[in-house]
Amino acid sequence: MHNSYLIHGGRAAKTGLVLLLVFMVPALLLFDSCSIKKTQEVLRFGIMPDVDSMPFLAAKSHGLFEKYGVNVELVSFSNAQERDAAFQAGRLDGTISDLLAAVLLASGGFDIKVTSATDGRYGIALAPGSAVSSVKELQGKKIGLSTNTIIQYSIDAIAKNAGLEANTYIPMAIPKMPIRMELLLSGQVDAAGLPEPFLSMAELRGSRILATSSEYGLDAAVVLFDKAYLDKNLSKVKKLYKAYAEAAEDINASPASYRTFLVEKAAFPEEVARLFRFVDYREPVLPSMDQLKAVIAWLSGRSLLSRPVDAASLMDDRAIGK
Q1: How far is CA 245 from CA 102, 152, 199, 248, in A?
Q2: pLDDT tens digits, residue range 225-249?
Q3: pLDDT at 23 (0 to 100)
Q4: In this structure, are 235 and 97 located in the same domain?
Q5: Are residues 267 and 230 in the same domain?
């Protein structure tokens, strides 16, 4: 009798366990599905340690994305190559980038949109002790740069606007930024194209800034979004821009209060942050069509486009409402 009870009791326990699993498995699958869905709801946005990223970093730090009801993950990259590779692989929904990268992506068959300009700053820095006083005087001078990039384009655009004839300076290909700056400071090149914070760092160490993209009104730095993501999640991107605009306004109102933020969040060297001249952040706006066409012409002239790119189809102002 005792053994029979154990046998029957064991069968009952096993039956109960099976029934429990029958009910638990769908629940676990549902929970897992919800978790995946929740992860997919995050807007993954690529940033760099530069001036362009400041309003996005400030928006994240001050809880502005949450205020406007959008879950944003800022993914930081140390160089443009890694950022572009992540965007192409679909690991980012949107990213800070530049018009050259946008046109090259479109030419390569990627369906992306330029949704706004950003307020980055690139410039030409002179070697310490240089007697050059105008952009025109760069004729015949060696300028350190990275070829076929936003830096070279900015130098060419500044030179053209200043009246310096094309191909009259000597481009020196120095892809790595720290090495480029060291060669500039040691006088091994006459000038160099640099983004922030390297531009301010060079000035702090004895260089002189000859010209910047801000002074010449170049809107080469932009925000890009995958078109399919933008079409499906336009309301989220609009909320992202609302948070960005509020953060930008706050920085403009009190830039000095953000010097510590430059060090802690944007990875600026402390000595640079103390002397940094903040840009004036605008409300989100598209770059001009003329500037986009100029970039397309510049890349086409270098035979860097695998197929033609239509400027108008690349721009999309739905998220900024302009």
Answers
A1: 23, 29, 25, 5
A2: 999 999 999 999 999 999 999 999 9
A3: 40
A4: yes
A5: yes
